[in-house]
Structures are given as C-alpha cells and as structure tokens.
From TrEMBL:
Membrane-traversing stretches: 53-81, 130-153, 159-177, 198-217, 229-250, 306-323, 343-363, 370-393, 405-429, 441-462
Record's GO cellular component terms: plasma membrane
Family listed: Belongs to the SLC29A/ENT transporter (TC 2.A.57) family.
Keywords of the record: Membrane, Transmembrane, Transmembrane helix, Transport
Biased composition (Basic and acidic residues): 1-19
Membrane protein topology class: Multi-pass membrane protein
PANTHER family in alphabetical order: EQUILIBRATIVE NUCLEOSIDE TRANSPORTER, EQUILIBRATIVE NUCLEOSIDE TRANSPORTER 2, ISOFORM A
Predominant location category: membrane
Protein name per its UniProtKB record: Equilibrative nucleoside transporter 3
InterPro entries, per database record: Eqnu_transpt (IPR002259)
Amino acid sequence: MADEQIDREKDAGDDRKESGSFNTAGTASHGRVASTTSAGESEGEEPEDRYNLVYLTMMLHGIGILIPWSSFITIAVEYYVCFKLRKLTPHGGEETPYARDFLKYLATASQGPNLLLNMLNLFLTFRGGLAARIFVCIIIVCVICAITMAFIFIDTSSWIGGFFWLTMVLVVLLNAANGVYQNSLFGIAADLPPNVTASIMIGNNLCGVFCAIVAMITRAASTTPEASAMAYFSVSLLLVTACGFSFMLLRRSAFYQYHVNKVGKEKRKGGTSKEIQDDSDKRTTEEIFDKLSDYYEVVKTGGVQLLNVWLVLFVSLAVFPAIQAEVRPRDDFIIPKEYFELITSFFSFGFFAMCGAMLSNWIQWPSPRFLVVATTLRLIFIPFFLACNYRPITRRWPVLIANEWAFIVGGALLAFTSGYFASLAMIYAPRVVAPSKSRSAGMLAAFFLVIGLCTGIGFTYLEAYVMENVGPLKPLQLGDATGDMCAAFNKTA
C-alpha cells in the first residue's frame, strides 16, 4: 500500500547518503553531520532556503522541461518544413508530403507519448524513487538534443522520408521523457512550500519568452536554417545539462531534505504505509489497487482543483498557439507582418503568463473553493479569438473583432490568467488533501495538466474545421500553405 511512501523514503534516503559533509558549513565532524541530518528529519525549526537555491533550481527545471520541445516547435517551419523536408529542384524548393503534414505529425507524436508516460508514471515504482526518474529523463533529453544537432551537418536530401520518420521517433522519445520528468518534478514539489510549485510554472513560461526572443534575433539577423537550429538546440543541451547538476545540489539542501522527510513522517503517522521493503521489481495487483485508492482519495477531496488545472490548460492550448498565431494584421499596422505573430503571440504569451505565475507567489485569490468560477469564465476566450482576423483567406465566418489592439490586449489577458490560475490550481491541489497524499495530488495534477494540453490541442482541429467548412460565407482562394510560409522566411533571409 506504500508505493508513494517507498518513493519518498528512497528519495530521502538517497539524499541523506549524498548529503554527507554538504549539510554543514566548513569542516564538520561525523557527529555534527548526524545531528544535522536528524534535525532535518525532526519537526524542529525549518531550515532557511539559502540564496533561494531550491526556488531558483526548480525554476531552472521549469525551463528545462520545455526548452527542447519549445526549440522543436519554434524552429519547425524554418528548419524542417522549409529546409530539411523540402525537395530541392533546379527551380528552387518543392513541397513534399512530409513538409505539408509535418506540423500535424509533430503535434501527434508529441502529446500522445507525453500523456501515456505521465499516466504510467502514476503507477509504476522504480528503484531510487522520483529523483532517479528525473536523472534518467535528463540523460535521455540530452542525448536527443545531441543527435538532433548532429543531423544539422548531415545532408538528408536523398532520404527525406527516412529523416522524417527518424525525427518523429526522436520527438516521441523526447516527449515521453519530458512527460515523466514533469510529472516527477511536480510530485517532488508537492512536498515543498507552495511557492516552489509556482517557480516551476514561472520557469515554464520564461522558456516561452526566451524562445520568442531568440526567434526574433535569428529572424532579424537573417541566419541560415542550420545556424538557427544549432543556436536553439545548443542552448537546450546546455540548459538541460545544467538542470542535471543543479538537481544534485538541490538534494543536498537541508531545506529540501527537511520538507521531504517531514511529509514522509506525516505519511507514517497517517498509518497508510506498510513496512517499507525493497521493491525487488514486484508489480503486484495489490500495489496497483493501493495507488488507485490513493488517487481516488485525492480526486474525492481535491477533484475541483484537478478540474481547474485541466480547464486552464484546455482553454490556453485551444487558443495558443494554433489560433492566436494565425490571426493576421492589416498591412499598415505598427508591428511588421514578419514579426507580428512572434511579438503578439509567442513573446506576449510567455511574458504575461510568467507575470501571472509570479503574482501567485504573493496573491492567492480566489480561494480554492471559488477558483473554478474564474477558470470556467476563461472559456469566453475561445469564441473571442475565433472572432478576430483568424485565417482571413479560408474562413467562412465574418470577422467581428478586426482591431489589432483588441486582439493584443485579449492575448495578454489570456496569457496572464493562464499563468496565474494554472499556478494557483497546481498550488492548491496538494494543499487541499491530507499531507500523506500531497505527492499523489501533485503528480495527479501534473497528469491533468497534460490532459489539458492534449485536449486543447485536439480541440483546435475542430475549431479550424468549423471556421473553414461550416460558416455562411465563401472563402477566398488559398495558395500553397508551405510555399507561402517559406516565402516569408526567404523574404527575411
């Protein structure tokens, strides 16, 4: 009945082994180390998070979770659609089926494995607990980044189909690893103070800001597709590597050990665990049902917060980036067309979502009871953005909101409420359940976050179909989609 407790005991036990001389300042005797460790395990005074090490480390991991995938989607059109997957001809580039459908395949290959591995991570127990899973996932992500960088220098024009499917395999592995990484990280954060969970959300959104800035710089500098891809994936590799080393330091922190051990003690007091034994690779039916029982208790007590997590991410992904990035400005608007979607969609969403997540550190309103009212009201964003100048050439519905500034303000509100309410829901989920269930609640909330991502992305297909096939108007003539996109990149190059 104690898989969650086994994970927590393994994490805490490994941390105590590794802490050794790191728990004390300067040279310490063996006895002093022991007393420091026992203090961390007791219910004494809470150690200080010196230099905000734990907070900043979790923020770094918030960036590290998303930076490789953000690099893939940011560079997808310029590098994959318009370069690697486009057939070279004497007259220039020619569209291939792989280029035309790349973005659809990319979305499918990303979210399916992410959802599946998040679900499996809820039930499977591994030696070393959640910390070991994080280290393994970081290694996998680093290897994928390195392989992707290596193919920048390889001519794949003679085997475009093979390169396409190899890329899909890498995307599947990347998102599977990221799914376990994210779920495990939120599980650990659930044992720590609420602002630590908020720091992960801040890191997630800071990643979006960073990628948007890099995209604007590379576009303004007229870099080649290869140079742009190398810049993105080099930075991704460095940041994910830094996450691995920072996690080693995190586990040696007295602040971290104190909270992990404190929650473990609450688990034992609650009488929900059996004698802790080495798992010995057993995956019994009883263990599965015990975990299901834990998750049932979490859903019964904190189900509304899980609904809030899903609602926030569903609405956000139903609009951003698929709908928001395809809203077009007038020719004479102050922001040039080639930078419009980067500034008003990608940069704006990342920046304001980060601001919202940061605000949750100081203001936590509405309360857990009434947060669902706010998250439900956000559904109004979906018809709002569809009423803007979305896909003006192919839409069959009239444009009701033609003003670009209304679109920009709406985008800022969408992003800010996404960061703020998502952080609140992730903070509330482990706090409204018994302390012994906090880690289960954190992991389940992360799972609902991914469900929100998947359902939001899936809903964009329905939105596009309705806007282009159901309305009363006749669409304008549409040219080659990928050809138009690549022409825009060639103009800035």
